[in-house]
Design goal:
alpha/beta; Rossmann fold; Dehydroquinate synthase-like, alpha domain; seven-stranded mixed β-sheet; two-stranded antiparallel ribbon; 13 helices; 11 strands; 43% helix; 19% strand; globular; binds nicotinamide-adenine-dinucleotide; binds glycine
Length: 352
């Protein structure tokens, strides 16, 4: 069964979630492509699996199709790859009324969105997420980016997609590590605002993923609607991310984002409990659900290293950072703190 969630930002767009959507994507996307040319971006793992299927459907819908494939992985999320992508768009003769199509995970989506945002000062793009993380998070909301030497996602633009089609059949080929990685962000939405959703991950039935993804997307859509440019309310989506970003940095970006978010969320819960701000027992419950879904809950770095790395966070405002803390599962709050408090957050957030 297919579910559609409307994202109410700018002109608005639909996120459609369900099986079999790649086979029929041409019919859905052709009306969004007045110029008649689609430019499909994918990575070297996803392209052999799904590019031919997408190309066939787009061509059957009457579109001319060109494509760009880059080596899979975060290491490709660079200005250099973006440059090659933009040159390929120009060589394909793409015009402002054509359509860029991101087929893959968050790396593909973030770079395709960025390229669409700057190519000829902006063309439309759509997201076809093939990872759980991209489905519940990166394909929705219009944040795009590449990494710089100074850190992850340091250059980018806000540009909302014209549509998102999440074909849940693609998860059949997704390695288990990446499947679980996306569960971390999915569980996060439950901790933020939806206690019942959180407990759906206690003994997850994977056949229910389309429904759960749609629920996560609807929650994200509310935050994006209220705060499209990430100035206040959208910061809630960063639950667990202050320490997660520090861990990713300390790992040299070998640690997967969702795995880091799981550990960072546990730290936020434990810090809150130790200060009496978070309901007793919350940390234990979050650890239980993350562990049950194969996610790590113990951070391997020490408080000093974490605090130093976290203090460089790009979301810092002057000498302050805003972190998300948990009141109880299903309700969170924002807490502004001086950068110097990050050491306490790390120290109290770690076990022992
Ligand atoms: P990814 O795009 O690198 O995908 C993970 C791996 O899975 C890759 O090796 C990819 O080739 C492979 N893969 C993808 N789909 C597959 C499938 N169906 N079958 C087999 N293999 C498949 O990583 P990701 O975890 O999807 O996304 C992480 C990126 O997303 C990071 O760069 C992060 O910064 C970004 N992100 C962006 C936002 C946002 O709001 N824009 C939010 C969260 C994360
Ligand atoms: N991934 C967080 C956001 O989109 O704001």
């Amino acid at each position: 069964m297919t579910r559609t969630v409307r994202i109410d930002v700018g002109a608005g767009y639909d996120v459609t979630v369900g099986p079999g959507l790649l086979d029929t994507c041409g019919g859905a996307l052709a009306p969004l492509c007045r110029g008649g040319s689609a430019f499909v971006v994918s990575d070297s793992t996803v392209a052999p699996l799904y590019l031919a299927q997408v190309r066939r459907s787009l061509e059957e819908a009457g579109l001319r199709v060109s494509s760009f494939v880059f080596p899979a992985g975060e290491k490709s999320k660079t200005l250099a790859t973006l440059g090659h992508m933009l040159e390929a768009m120009a060589e394909a003769g793409l015009t402002r009324s054509d359509l860029a199509v991101a087929l893959g995970g968050g790396v593909t989506g973030d770079m395709t969105g960025f390229a669409a945002g700057v190519y000829q000062r902006g063309i439309s793009y759509v997201q076809l997420p093939t990872t759980v993380l991209a489905a519940v998070d990166s394909s929705v909301g219009g944040k795009t980016a590449v990494d710089l030497r100074a850190g992850k996602n340091m250059a980018g633009v806000f540009i909302q997609p014209a549509a998102v089609l999440c074909d849940t059949d693609t998860f059949a080929t997704l390695p288990e590590k990446w499947f679980r990685d996306g569960l971390a962000e999915s569980i996060k939405y439950g901790i933020l605002t939806d206690r019942e959703l959180f407990f759906r991950f206690d003994g997850l039935d994977r056949s229910e993923m389309p429904e759960l993804i749609a629920r996560c997307v609807a929650i994200k859509g509310e935050y994006v609607h209220r705060d499209p440019l990430d100035c206040w309310d959208r910061r809630y989506l960063n639950l667990g991310h202050t320490m997660a970003h520090a861990m990713e940095k300390l790992s040299g970006y070998t640690l997967a984002h969702g795995h880091a978010v799981a550990m960072g969320t546990v730290m936020a819960a434990r810090y809150g409990e130790r200060l009496g701000l978070t309901e007793a027992g919350t940390t234990e419950e979050i650890c239980r659900i993350y562990s049950k879904n194969g996610l790590p809950v113990s951070c391997p770095y020490d408080a000093g290293a974490l605090a130093r790395a976290a203090s460089m966070d790009k979301k810092r405002t002057g000498g302050d950072v805003t972190v998300v803390l948990i009141e109880t599962i299903g309700r969170c709050f924002l807490k502004k703190m001086p950068v110097s408090e990050l050491y306490e957050l790390a120290r109290l957030g770690l076990e022992g």
